[in-house]
Amino acid sequence: MNDTASHTRIGDSIRIPRTTARIGIARRDITPPVGIRAKNWGPADWERSEGAHRPFTLTALAVVGGDGRPRVLLAVDGTWWRRVADERGVRGAILDGLGLEPDQLLLSLSHTHAGAVLCAADAHLPGGELIPGYLEALAGAGVAAGREALDGVRQGLIEWTSGRCTLAADRELDVDGRPLVGYNPGATADDTVMIGRLSVDGVVCATLVNYACHPTTLAWQNREVSPDYVGAMRELVEAATGAPCLFVQGASGELAPREQYTGDVDVADRHGRSLGHAVLAALDALPTPGEQLTLDGVVESGAPLAIWTGRAVDGGSGAAGSLTSVELTLRDLPTLDELAEEWKDIDPRSREERLGRARNLRDGYIDGPTVQHPVWAWRLGDAVIVAHPGEAYSRLQTTLRARFPETPVLVMNLTNGPGFVYLPTRDAYDRGAYQAWQTPLAPGALDALESHAVAVVAGLLGP
After folding, report:
1. 91 — phi, psi (to 5°)?
2. Is residue 124 part of a domain?
3. Does the residue 382 lie in any domain?
4. Helix pair angle (395-403, 445-461), 10° resolution
5. Where are the alpha helices (DSSP H) in 315-366?
């Protein structure tokens, strides 16, 4: 017997989580210039981009909730930060330009692996001379879009829902005892898509998409910058809704497409359409913006028919935020000389790529046996956003959603900084997975982040 149905009464509604707030949207084109350094893969035998597969965008969402405190989310097509100084410079300039405090801004990178290198220290390398100017332009775009979004806020509604998409797959594969980074057909992956439909006066003005999957479709064979699957997803959703679509990367540390490491942009577009159709399916299952299905009564036909119709309802208007940190332990790290010796027999291009990443990870982040890992959390009406700069495994988001099943929880990797590091499961360390030996964090970091995030969300939601 369905206990919920047995207690349904005339006038009851099907609850849709909502956020009532003043909202504003703005966008800027941030497509990297042709010729910029875009070497993100060790096997690449080229260094400068030769064009753009699809435009790169920076889209600003401004939200002013019940506490009157403005908050800005910047969804950015970008790779990843390699140095603390670059992230701090761009985000600091945006904070100053918008007059915001650090807890009021989320700068979230999509994590495409086919974008410009975001590292000013590479200015001496081919294509690197364009990086400092691009970082300055990125900051300028963030200020301009953020200001336009803040100035244009209007009373609106965010309605939260979820869908399913099978694009993401587990990428921890063992072959002949060696851990590889690639599709593991024997494992399952979190397929949840979190979606926010934004509307003003009943008209959709934006869609927010949160999905966990590495944009690694395109690899060293591709010489154009590309937002990877995000580009085609965005195009499809925007064509159907007539409004901007913002993508934010989820907890995707061990998740990636089954088919990847190619130079064929058609594959990336196919992946994007897969996600886009999942988003549209979930949106089409929602009632009209601002309405909630309500049991109006019974019509007698050949059978007694329960009549559910849409009725206008309000959303949650409460808002709160926090910026906290969790202390994470570092593992015993080899020196750079020891790493160079360990990797001496691999391809020289790949070896230099690995050494460069190791060097950059240590600069400005590691100072002592532990590190302080920042966590941003926003409560927006009935929903919560949890963001951090690292690459957590998907268990972070599945744990939070299981702990708070009545609350839409968006989890965002690669947001703000410092701490651009993997947070793998203990099993990944035991297997010797790439993410485990690449990160400076000791086993247990993901557990600590999870516990901290659960406590933060519980505090925001209250009793």
Report:
1. -65, -35
2. no
3. yes
4. 30
5. 336-342, 348-362
Q: How many domains does the chain have?
A: 1
Task: Give pLDDT tens digits for 139-184.
Answer: 999 999 999 999 999 999 999 999 999 999 999 999 999 999 999 9
Query: Which range of residues forms the domain containing residue 381?
Result: 319-461
Residue 331 is given by DSSP the state P
Terminal CA-CA length for the chain: 31
Domain assignment present for residue 387? The answer is yes
DSSP secondary structure letters along 75-86: EE----B--HHH
The reply to whether 88 falls in a domain is: no
What confidence tier does 1 reach under pLDDT thresholds 50, 70, 90?
Answer: very low
DSSP string, 411-428: EESSBSSS---EE--HHH
388 within 8 A of 396, measured Cβ to Cβ: no
Give the count of beta carbons closer than 10 Å to the beta carbon of residue 57: 24
The gap from C-alpha 157 to its chain's centroid, in whole angstroms, comes to: 22
Take residue 88 and report the two structure tokens written for it.
């701090």
DSSP 176-213: TTEEEES--TTS----EEEEEEEEETTEEEEEEEEE--
Please state, in angstroms and rounded to a whole number, the distance separating the CA atoms of residues 346 and 201.
59
Query: If phi over 0 gives left and psi between -120 and 50 gives alpha, with beta otherwise, what is residue 369?
Result: alpha
Residue 201 Cα distances to 156, 280, 312, angstroms = 7, 21, 12
CA distance 370 to 327: 6
Does position 221 have pLDDT exceeding 90, yes or no?
Answer: yes
Average pLDDT score, the chain:
94
